[in-house]
Write a sequence for this structure.
């Protein structure tokens, strides 16, 4: 016979395993190990294994014949089968005369042989070593296979290479995205795959140098598809660090410390961090049959730390992530043309500025390009030394005696008789009040809306506050002065009276809107954010080149308002109400920053206009509860307030023609002055078309209306019903278009 000494053959089936097994981030739960003992006779050896199973809390079955053993195994599919080979006439697993070879045993499916030992603890220890060794290793291997299967189904493109940069594996998603077939890549070195010419020549060497040192590399990498197209990707490659000992991958051994895996999703590479630990086999008294013929891998514990995995495990999910997940799911069952179209959709969604339209080249429309560049971008080139910031003004001495609304001089009061009309002329009030229109118009509008009653503050305090705010506007600015603030306040009050707006907002929202309009440009220096950043101004440094002016307006307004009780209109309201009011004011002032223009408009359209339109199409205006739900949700109230102040802030093209022309001249003069100063100081010229010697004001107005005004006021009109504004806008656009067609650069045509 094969064995000269009595022995027991151990056959491991590995069907189920431990109650709880930790495998990297996976926690696996299974029933207790099931053991089948196949012994022809009862003796100390069979009893020893029975006792060992009971002690280890394994489930044990006993069979006396090959037929009963087979029947029992087919019923329960045991994890471990122990066969008594001492009586070969009863159980002939294999027969051979070649005692020097264990291959027949291996071919028969046996994993181990156990020399007869009457010591029951030896049986117990053997079972425990089998459980913690081969059984658990095989179980983890199946878990690893499950992960590998998941990689096959993953929509992330995955590529695995060896230490020699030979491609070992790519998944189907990689094939789909890059256009290659698996057979075209596996076995090839990375350098054999065509690279994009957009990469720097030494990029790959830089990456390899980092990987060899065990360091992470991160940067921009251009991958080249099979069709020749280049894809820009933000790449992060992390070397996988092992602790010696090879691992098996696709049947090819290579060192774990030299393997790295790159996965990219939505154009960004994410690298898993795989760690392994080596567990040496300390089993005594038995022989691993397979270890005599091949190098087996030690049991290892692998753990992946993927940034994307952590993100997807969070309970908080960003809306854009939900959208991308929905698109990805739809792609799986979509025909190829639809899937390709969805790929293009995903490309668009990957951009950070989802709501910012892309401009054409500068040659197509320099006026639009310069306007957008000046209003929506922040430059930081050729920075000069920081300049000084003007200190806040106090109330002028001749205005220190507050007057009530009834004490307004008759001439000034007469200019404000139609202040509730859209055609109200703020320039008449500016002239009558000697450039102090904000205080007088503020007194009247705030009185009409009951602001003092809401704030529980005396009228004298409100008057002092208005005087203080107006004193901190720069009268030397041609545009951003207190007349502009008064104009925005007037527009805000006009919009607040519209029925749909009143349905949306609470009294605290109305008060916040009026205050925000009053302070939204306080202490404006007459220069854009881009100018301040280029000049290295103290404000730009203070606010990190981000929403510089808008942040300053909001902060200064509260600073000077709360500094003196005589001017503190917030002194008399309850603390929580003040916090709510303050947050609303800050949010509205920050909403006037133009870099967020398209985000605010698109959110308003998609969250409010479209749902309201859908309700009207489905059931008219009968579903009042649904309409109310849309209008009064906290999120939508914020969008309404942002849209309201944005429209009020840049409503000049919707004013009557003469007012529109005056405002156009004032803003142009302010931009001319900025361009002059940029040239004097050697700063980058933010808006080159606003050169007072060459600028076409009609073209600049046409560009501004086309790019910023039309869509926004279409949306606001659909919500608030403003036909008179839209008529003015149409008339004004035709006016500027007519001047441009005559190739005139001025505000008005030459006299007849």
């Amino acid at each position: 016979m094969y064995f000269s000494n009595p022995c027991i053959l151990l056959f491991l089936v590995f069907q189920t395993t431990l109650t709880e097994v930790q495998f990297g981030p996976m926690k696996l739960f299974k029933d207790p190990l099931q053991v089948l003992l196949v012994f022809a006779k009862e003796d100390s050896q069979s009893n020893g294994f029975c006792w060992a199973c009971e002690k280890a809390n394994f489930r044990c079955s006993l069979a006396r014949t090959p037929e009963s053993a087979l029947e029992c195994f087919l019923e329960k599919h045991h994890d471990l089968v122990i066969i008594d080979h001492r009586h070969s006439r009863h159980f002939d697993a294999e027969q051979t005369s070649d005692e020097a070879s264990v291959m027949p045993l291996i071919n028969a499916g046996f994993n181990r042989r156990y020399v007869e030992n009457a010591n029951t603890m030896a049986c117990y220890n053997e079972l425990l070593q089998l459980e913690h060794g081969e059984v658990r290793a095989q179980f983890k291997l199946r878990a690893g296979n499950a992960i590998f299967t998941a990689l096959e189904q993953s929509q992330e493109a995955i590529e695995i290479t060896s230490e020699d940069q030979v491609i070992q594996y790519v998944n189907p998603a990689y094939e789909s995205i890059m256009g290659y077939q698996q057979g075209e890549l596996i076995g090839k070195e990375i350098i054999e795959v065509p690279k994009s010419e957009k990469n720097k020549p030494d990029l790959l060497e830089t990456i390899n140098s980092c990987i060899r040192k065990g360091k992470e590399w991160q940067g921009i990498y251009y991958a080249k598809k099979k069709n020749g197209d280049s894809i820009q990707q933000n790449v992060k490659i992390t070397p996988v660090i092992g602790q010696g000992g090879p691992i098996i991958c696709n049947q090819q051994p290579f060192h774990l410390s030299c393997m790295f895996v790159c996965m990219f999703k939505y154009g960004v590479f994410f690298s898993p961090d795989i760690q392994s630990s080596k567990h040496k086999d300390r089993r005594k008294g038995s022989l691993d049959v397979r270890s005599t013929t091949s190098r087996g891998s030690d049991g290892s514990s692998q753990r992946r730390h993927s940034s994307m995995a952590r993100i997807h495990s969070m309970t908080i999910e960003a809306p854009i992530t939900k959208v991308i997940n929905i698109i990805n799911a739809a792609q799986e069952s979509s025909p190829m043309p639809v899937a390709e179209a969805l790929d293009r959709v995903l490309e668009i969604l990957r951009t950070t500025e989802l709501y910012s339209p892309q401009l054409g080249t500068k040659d197509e429309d320099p006026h639009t390009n310069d306007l957008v560049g000046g209003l929506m971008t922040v430059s930081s080139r050729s920075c000069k030394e920081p300049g000084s910031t003007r200190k806040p003004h106090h109330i002028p001495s001749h205005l220190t005696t507050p007057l009530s609304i009834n004490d307004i001089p008759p001439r000034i009061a007469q200019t404000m008789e139609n202040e509730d009309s859209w055609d109200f002329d703020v320039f008449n009030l500016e002239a009558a009040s000697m450039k102090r229109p904000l205080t007088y118009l503020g007194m009247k509008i705030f009185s009409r809306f009951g602001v003092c009653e809401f704030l529980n503050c005396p009228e004298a305090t409100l008057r002092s506050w208005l005087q203080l705010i107006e004193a901190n506007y720069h009268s030397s600015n041609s545009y951003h002065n207190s007349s502009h603030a008064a104009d925005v306040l007037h527009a805000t009050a006009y919009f607040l009276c519209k029925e749909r707006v009143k349905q949306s907002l609470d009294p605290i929202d109305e008060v916040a809107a009026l205050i925000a309009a009053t302070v939204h440009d306080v202490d404006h220096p007459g220069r854009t954010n881009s100018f301040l950043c280029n000049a290295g101004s103290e404000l730009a440094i203070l606010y990190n080149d981000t929403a510089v002016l808008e942040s300053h307006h909001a902060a200064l307004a509260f600073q000077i308002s709360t500094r003196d009780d005589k001017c503190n209109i917030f002194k008399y309201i309850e603390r929580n109400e003040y916090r709510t009011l303050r947050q609303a004011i800050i949010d509205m002032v920050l909403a006037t920053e133009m870099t967020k223009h398209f985000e605010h408009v698109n959110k308003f359209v998609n969250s409010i206009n479209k749902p309201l339109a859908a309700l009207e199409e489905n059931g008219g205006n009968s579903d009042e509860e649904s309409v109310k739900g849309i209008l009064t949700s906290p999120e939508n109230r914020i969008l309404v307030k942002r849209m309201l102040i944005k429209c009020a802030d840049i409503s000049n093209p919707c004013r009557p023609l003469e007012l529109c022309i005056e405002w156009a001249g004032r803003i142009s003069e302010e931009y001319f002055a900025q361009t002059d100063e940029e040239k004097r100081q050697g700063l980058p010229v933010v808006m080159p078309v606003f050169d007072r010697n060459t600028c076409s004001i009609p073209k600049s107005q046409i560009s501004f209306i086309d790019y910023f005004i039309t869509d926004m006021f279409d949306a606001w009109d659909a919500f608030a019903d403003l036909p008179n504004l839209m008529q003015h806008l149409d008339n004004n656009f035709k006016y500027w278009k007519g001047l441009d067609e005559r190739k005139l650069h001025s505000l008005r045509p030459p006299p007849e």
